[in-house]
Amino acid sequence: MDKRALLIESFHAAVGAADPQKILPPHLPQPPQGKTLVVGAGKAAAAMALAVEQQWPSAAPLTGLAITRYRHGLLTNRIKVIEAGHPVPDESGEKAAQEILRRTKTLGASDLLLALISGGGSSLLSLPVEGIGMDELKATTRELLRCGAPIQDMNTVRKHLSAIQGGRLASACKAQVLALIISDVTGDDPTHIGSGPCAPDPSTYQDAEDIIARYGVKAPASVAAHLSRGARGEIAETPKPGDKLFQRVENRVIATAQGSLQAAADYFRAKGIAPVVLGDSVTGEATEVAKVYAALVRQIRGHAGPFRPPLALISGGECTVTVRGNGRGGRCSEFLLSLALELDGMPNTHSLACDTDGIDGSEDNAGAVLAPDSLARAAAAGISAKKLLANNDGYSFFESLGDLVVTGPTRTNVNDYRVILVL
User: Fold this and answer.
1) pLDDT profile of the chain (423 residues), mean per 10
2) 317 and 346, same structural domain?
3) Same domain, 279 and 264
4) Exposed e or buried b for every residue in 260-277, given b needs 16+ CB within 10 A?
């Protein structure tokens, strides 16, 4: 049995369960009496837009604009696709978001706004409020990315710096709104996915201000002043749950991490390996999560419980990395490098950790694979795993071993996928 191929094929099964071409068509509505405007934002936006085009009646009016990450675009005809910056926003995303908001405001009661939302939308659909420039928004985003804050907290801040997120896109529209959503956050709450442009926002300016303080975020003066004014009630809040505007809005989650984990579980079951799904909402520092998983593996190895090999320990969610070094890599490679040190070459134990969007952090890999001899091979090459982990440099560790997993953009995103094979 080729362990590496087994792990990678299970990852492809997980990603396939969130393929927009497969999952989106059953959720498309009938065309309205008027026109349909499609707007999208996220790593899956281009694939979702293409799926709409392929299924929409040719005689029914359809136009739109979708924003996706650079290198994630696809060739479309009726819905324009714009590429923009992620995870740090840029002017391309800002200009496209302005156009989306302008066109949304032209819709009438007989029209339909079809919103296609997926992970990455928070940075791609970037339209800062008046008084905050793109440079200030970029600086704030970089600080939030470095501080280790969970995505829900990051998005609470971003929603209160945005003219289009936190339900504001829906509030600008007089038409019926259907948002089809691929979830990349734990809990699958639409308000946190792409910062919820069509969803009610229960958070407040005070919450955003508290998050800035809690994580020691060095926000530009204009950002701090805006949040402070909002907390004092001088600026209107985002639309809240119970607002009557949401009576004409539906937010429908069509793909989740749990669905992808189940697809991977089915794959392993067919291979004669018992799957154990540990959860779709695993969070926390990647290095600490790895320590917990290693303890579970040692329990299984040493005491034949609570599960008996052969088995696959499968989990999803979104770990965080508090950046202390200047290395390369993302949370998946950080998790695996920490796991390698904890397991210390344990025989018959293999692992994979990959981001379902095909990009771990800001590098060109989806993640990596870990084998029992990974540490020994690295040591023989004069590579210190401990030093690289301290420098947040999981990418270099696995690159040196030829153990990166490189898929290119998958054009979907249901968060991280992790599996540990205990054979």
Assistant:
1) 95 98 97 97 98 97 97 96 96 98 98 97 96 96 89 95 98 98 94 97 98 95 97 97 97 97 98 96 93 97 90 94 86 97 97 96 92 97 96 96 96 96 97
2) yes
3) yes
4) bbbbbbebbeeeebebbe
